[in-house]
Amino acid sequence: MRPESLTRGDAGPDTLTVTGRVTLSEMLGHDHMIHIGGLSAPLRVRERYSPGAGETATVHAHPDDIHVFLPDGDGNRADLP
Question: Could you read off the pLDDT of 32-43 as tens digits, one per residue?
Answer without folding.
Answer: 888 988 877 788
